[in-house]
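Private note to self, pasted from the team thread so I don't lose it. Backbone tokens:
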């Protein structure tokens, strides 16, 4: 009986991977065959329109939003200073101002590290519950596939444990 089930499973897997008999080939038909060619005037107009669109595009950093419709905000470009100017400004500061600047810089660096660690850890590494769910799920599936009286039971138990960890992870999300 097991031989027939495994043979049927193999035939289904092989037939599901085969290509369909009736497929559409996109290379045989030219969809632009009935259309007229664009004249040079139409091409010139389209080039002018694309030039106008590119001139009207707005830099994303310059956009400012407001809930008040009566006021219009115009973003002012930030002045760019050279390294020598920045060093000169820092040297002209008093000791207390330098200490304050160092504290502000340290605070800003710590905040950036926290933001990066929060966003970085969640994308780079899986959480512990997800790892356990994947491990138990894979082991359970393998044990069920291998078969046997004892392995079916162990595979089902492993799948249930994996399902438990997966649900636990979903609840904490």
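Design output:
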């Amino acid at each position: 009986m097991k031989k027939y089930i495994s043979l049927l499973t193999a035939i289904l897997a092989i037939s599901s991977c085969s290509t369909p008999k009736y497929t559409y080939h996109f290379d045989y038909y030219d969809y632009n065959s009935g259309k007229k060619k664009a004249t040079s005037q139409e091409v010139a107009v389209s080039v002018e329109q694309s030039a106008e669109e590119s001139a009207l595009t707005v830099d994303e950093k310059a956009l400012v939003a407001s809930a008040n419709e009566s006021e219009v905000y115009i973003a002012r470009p930030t002045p760019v200073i050279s390294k020598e100017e920045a060093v000169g400004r820092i040297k002209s500061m008093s000791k207390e101002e330098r200490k304050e600047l160092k504290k502000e810089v340290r605070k800003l660096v710590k905040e950036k590290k926290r933001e990066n660690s929060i966003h970085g850890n969640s994308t780079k590494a899986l959480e512990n519950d997800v790892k356990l769910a994947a491990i138990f799920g894979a082991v359970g599936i393998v044990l069920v596939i291998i078969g046997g009286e004892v392995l079916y039971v162990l595979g089902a138990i492993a799948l249930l444990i994996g399902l438990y960890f997966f649900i636990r992870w979903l609840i904490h999300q």
